[in-house]
């Protein structure tokens, strides 16, 4: 290996499609709420979630998608579809 070679930066993973992102977030809601089904517009709190469990959702979003949302952002629209909109806005443009 030559010292003249430029450092190679790994490519960023591709951004998920809207449907993939929504599926991912719906799966997070199902897992943390221990429910078989969660609709895209299912309100986290009306489905039985609370603020402590919401932190698990936010942590899962950060791990899976590299986007750290605030609790206030979560409260603004606590649904898989609402979070998908916020995550997709925060993701870098697909390359």
UniProtKB/TrEMBL annotation:
Listed Pfam families: PP-binding (PF00550)
InterPro entries noted in UniProt: ACP-like_sf, PP-bd_ACP, Ppantetheine_attach_site
Gene3D superfamilies noted in UniProt: ACP-like (1.10.1200.10)
Keyword list, A-Z: Phosphopantetheine, Phosphoprotein
UniProt keyword annotation of Phosphoprotein present: yes
Limits of the Carrier domain: 16-91
Coiled-coil zones: none
Record keyword Protein transport present: no
Protein's name according to its UniProt entry: Phosphopantetheine binding protein
Species of the source: Kitasatospora cineracea
